[in-house]
């Protein structure tokens, strides 16, 4: 699998302006302390714990508090689980796309409109009506399916996120704009913070050593 640095290199357009901008961004994104590189060094425990009966409620509680909305948290959790997407990635994507606002809307220069929790595009999802776009469950369903498609096509997360934002064809033509590179960086930075908080508040409670200590305490 290519390194994050190599992946970014493949996304850089041939245009000098974007090449220079991407080179500058590359230095920031892939410095040893950066969120993208840090993430590549540790696994997301969220989905694993969500799938365990003993820890599922704690994971739900955590993400309800992150989003501030039970309906939104449940929608993302359920669809991320169905599509085998790390929870931290799913929630970081929703945060950068809409700040967890299911009513968010943005009109593009090509007259299409991005709507809802995962900012689904009206041209890409013509079968959805306006009510569908603003329904958290519907947005999460199609947002996670599309991210799964991008992950399968791009084969790793940096490329997949770029495809989600700029379109698969544009990324595959090495014509990724700087705005997309900034977008990927924003997601990875938020994700890194999310994972750190989750590890401290939830994951540490379900380590094998912790569980063993709790059982021994109960016996005593």
TrEMBL record:
Coiled coil: none annotated. It comes from the Bacteria. Pfam families: SLT. Residues 76-178 form the Transglycosylase SLT domain. InterPro entries: Lysozyme-like_dom_sf, Transglycosylase_SLT_dom_1. This is Transglycosylase SLT domain-containing protein.
């Amino acid at each position: 699998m290519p390194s994050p640095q190599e992946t970014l290199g493949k996304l850089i357009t041939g245009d000098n302006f974007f090449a220079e901008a991407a080179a500058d961004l590359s230095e920031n994104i892939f410095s040893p302390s950066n969120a993208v590189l840090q993430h590549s060094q540790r696994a997301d425990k969220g989905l694993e714990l969500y799938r365990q009966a003993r820890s599922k409620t704690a994971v739900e509680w955590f993400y309800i508090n992150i989003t501030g909305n039970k309906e939104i948290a449940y929608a993302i959790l359920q669809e991320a689980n169905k599509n085998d997407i790390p929870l931290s990635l799913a929630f970081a994507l929703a945060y950068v796309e809409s700040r967890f606002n299911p009513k968010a809307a943005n009109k593009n220069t090509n007259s299409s409109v991005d709507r809802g929790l995962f900012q689904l595009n009206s041209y890409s999802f013509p079968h959805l009506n306006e009510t569908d776009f603003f329904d958290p469950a519907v947005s999460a369903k199609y947002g996670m399916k599309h991210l799964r498609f991008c992950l399968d096509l791009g084969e790793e997360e940096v490329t997949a996120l770029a495809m989600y934002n700029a379109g698969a064809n544009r990324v595959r033509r090495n014509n990724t704009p700087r705005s997309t590179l900034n977008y990927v960086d924003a997601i990875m930075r938020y994700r890194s913070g999310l994972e750190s908080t989750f590890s401290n508040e939830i994951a540490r409670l379900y380590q094998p050593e912790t569980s063993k200590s709790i059982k021994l305490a109960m016996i005593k």
